[in-house]
Amino acid sequence: VKANGRGWFRLFESGMDDELQGRRKLEHDLRHALQHDELILHFQPLVDSNFRILAFEALVRWMHPTLGLVMPAQFIPLAEECGLIIPLGEWVMQAACTAAAGWSQPCRIAVNLSPAQILRTDLPTTIANILIKTGLPPDRLELEITEGVLMDNTDAAIKTLTELRELGTRLVLDDFGTGYSSLSYLQRFAFDKLKVDRSFVQRLASDSGSRAIIMAIIALSRSLDLEVTAEGVETEEQFRLLGATGCQEFQGYLIGRPMPHDEVENFLRNSSPL
Ligand code: C2E
Ligand code: CA
Ligand code: CA
Ligand code: CA
Fold first, then answer.
1. Where is each EAL domain found (predicted)?
2. Which candidate, 41, 106, 136, 202, has a CA 20 to 30 Å from the CA of 55?
3. Cβ distance 226 to 191 under 8 Å?
4. pLDDT at residue 8, rounded to an integer
5. Of the ligands numbered here, which is closest to the C-alpha atom of 232?
6. pLDDT value, residue 100
7. Under DSSP, is residue 101 helix (H, G, I), strand (E, B) or coil?
């Protein structure tokens, strides 16, 4: 079997299309990137209606030696497929908590979690260790989760999310409204907050249907005692309309673009204190 192995491999290799070869190269490069500090975080502010900073969301980028700055859409799906999302996610968590623990204001840090991370039973221990090591108080960490993983793996997800709650971290349902959204999930999994997806915010001003949906989501969330963030806020009009419907937290280019870490302190200094 071993002797044939190489032959099979060669056959496989010669039959591969360019796309597959490209992916293999990318996977190889990403593995290398993890070991050679090529990943960086950018931070995007979340503010209240008075533009006071509540949190920053950590968003990963890859400083590729030849391609330049690569955005997450171009490598997170690949990392999820090949399992690299586990070490990558741990790197993000460590880097994000370290950064936030050093800020001059106690704002929160939001970190995105992939489904594969949630399904690892050791995730709560990993996060607990990072919190201890960095000294970041658990309630300053917000974990952003998309709803797909909750639908498909309900029992496993409930167990992990319960443990994460017991640690004292905050749970956020991300991209709300894009999937099979059900507000019953929010109660069942004890989320603290939901993020209304950018697509609704974009259609807010032009489409009365989207406006009605957002208003209903915000009203329901508030009656369930959930916080609501609107993401992708780009215009004053969106900001105003969202505020009028009772939304209390805002994120988007209008407020601030994702910025490298060395700009965060400046941004904090120039904003009004909480
Ligand atoms: P997301 O969690 O929904 O993050 C918001 C995305 O919207 C970010 O894109 C952000 O730069 C972008 N954005 C923010 N405000 C605006 C706006 O006003 N207008 C527009 N058009 N876009 C806005 P980014 O940084 O390219 O990240 C894309 C996605 O990649 C994220 O979507 C998230 O799902 C994923 N991602 C990023 N970092 C990580 C990570 O560390 N771990 C995991 N698992 N996923 C990550
Ligand atoms: Ca997010
Ligand atoms: Ca989102
Ligand atoms: Ca998204």
1. 23-272
2. 202
3. yes
4. 47
5. 1
6. 98
7. helix
Q: Cα–Cα distance between 102 and 271 in angstroms, integer? A: 18
Q: For residue 180, give the DSSP letter.
A: S
Which tens digit of pLDDT belongs to each residue from 81-112? 999 999 999 999 999 999 999 999 999 999 99
CB neighbour class for 242 (10 Å; exposed up to 12, middle 13-18, buried from 19): buried
112: left (phi over 0), alpha (psi -120 to 50) or beta: beta
**Amino acid 11: pLDDT:** 47
- Count CB atoms within 10 A of the CB of residue 18: 7
- Whether 236 shows a pLDDT value over 70: the answer reads yes
Q: How many secondary structure helices (H) and strands (E) does the chain include?
A: 13, 10
Percentage of residues of the chain with pLDDT beyond 90:
66
- 146 C-alpha to ligand 3 centroid (Å): 8
Q: What are the helix (H) ranges across the chain?
A: 2-15, 18-35, 76-82, 85-101, 115-118, 123-134, 148-152, 154-167, 183-188, 198-203, 208-223, 236-244, 264-269
The answer to whether the pTM exceeds 0.90 is yes
The ipTM assigned to this model is: 0.98
Asked whether the CA dihedral 99, 96, 33, 72 is positive or negative, the reply is negative
Residue with the smallest CA separation from ligand 1 atom 21 is 232
Compute the distance between CA of residue 79 and CA of residue 73 in angstroms, rounded to an integer: 10
Cα→Cα distances 97→15, 27, 108, 133, 141, Å: 44, 26, 9, 9, 8
Distance of CA 128 to the CA centre of its chain: 18
Which pair of tokens denotes residue 191?
């989320």
